[in-house]
C-alpha cells in the first residue's frame, strides 16, 4: 500500500531554493538526494535562498516530502 515504504520519516538538511509560496504558506527546498521538500517555518523566520535549514519530515508524498523547520 502507498506510504508503507517510509514508516519512519527522518530529519533532513535542506537547501532553500525558493522563497515563501504565499498561496500555501510553505517554502521549497531540495534534500541532498535531490528530493523536493516543502516546509513551514516558525513565525518570523525567513530563510534566504541558498541557505541550509534543518527540516523534520512529516509527510511523504509520491513526488515530494513535506515537513517543518527545526530550530
What is the structure about, briefly put?
With 71 residues, the chain is mainly beta. Helices cover 0% and strands 51% of the residues.
Keywords:
5 strands, mainly beta, single chain, 0% helix, globular, disordered N terminus, 51% strand
Write the layout of secondary structure elements.
Elements: E1 11-21, E2 26-30, E3 36-40, E4 52-60, E5 64-69
Parallel strand pairs: 3-5
Antiparallel strand pairs: 1-2, 1-4, 2-3, 4-5
Describe the protein's architecture and organization.
- The chain has 71 residues and is mostly beta strands.
- It contains no helices and five strands.
- It has a five-stranded mixed beta barrel with strand order 1-2-3-5-4.
Largest sheet entry: 5 strands, mixed, barrel
Shape call: globular
Q: Based on helices, strands and strand pairing, what is the structural class?
A: mainly beta
Percent of sequence in beta strands: over 45%
Q: Give the number of DSSP strands.
A: 5
- The proportion of residues forming helix, as a percent range, comes to under 10%
Count the helices. How many?
0
| Average residue pLDDT | 81
Strand order of the largest sheet: 1-2-3-5-4
Order of helices and strands: EEEEE
The rounded Rg comes to 12 Å
